[in-house]
Amino acid sequence: MLKRVLVAIDGSDYSWRALEYACSLVKLSGGSLVIMTVAPKNSPVPVLFADGDCLTTHIGDEVLDSARSVMRGQGIDCSYILERGGKVAEHILRAEKSENCDAIVLGSRGFGTLEGLLKNSVSQVVLEHADIPVIIVK
Q: What predicted TM-score, i.e. pTM, was given to this entire model?
């Protein structure tokens, strides 16, 4: 049974479909979601000001803000992860382990097998190296 599902989103139509699919999975199993995105290394760090203290927070990222809006009212326990820079597939694989996930759901960009291998697509790398089931949504 799927208790904790990681879904990686990047704002593309494919990733929103993956989030929708992951929601349906955890609704059936009563599990929770870990929603993550990887922002470019040079993107600004979102900041929250509270009582004069400056706290770094993850909720300022536009993609995660959109995901929060989608998830509002869904009745699903969610946590959110914002990573910065580096190789996206490596961040996904690390998060899968650190968050103790049972499955990963990713959107596919629709590359054919040969083109995906030549471009070293994120979904292909995650599929090859993950220790848990990977679901790729088209």
A: 0.81
The helix (H) or strand (E) run that includes residue 20 is helix 13-29
What are the two backbone dihedrals, phi and then psi, of residue 63, each rounded to the nearest 5 degrees? Answer: -65, -45
Question: Would strands 47-50 and 32-39 be described as parallel, antiparallel, or unpaired?
Answer: unpaired
CATH homologous superfamily of domain 4-137? HUPs (3.40.50.620)
- pLDDT tens sequence across 47-95: 444 444 433 333 336 888 899 999 999 999 999 998 888 889 999 999 9
Q: How far apart are CA 2 and CA 37, in angstroms?
A: 21
- Which residue, among 109, 77, 76, has the nearest Cα to 8 in the 3D structure? 109
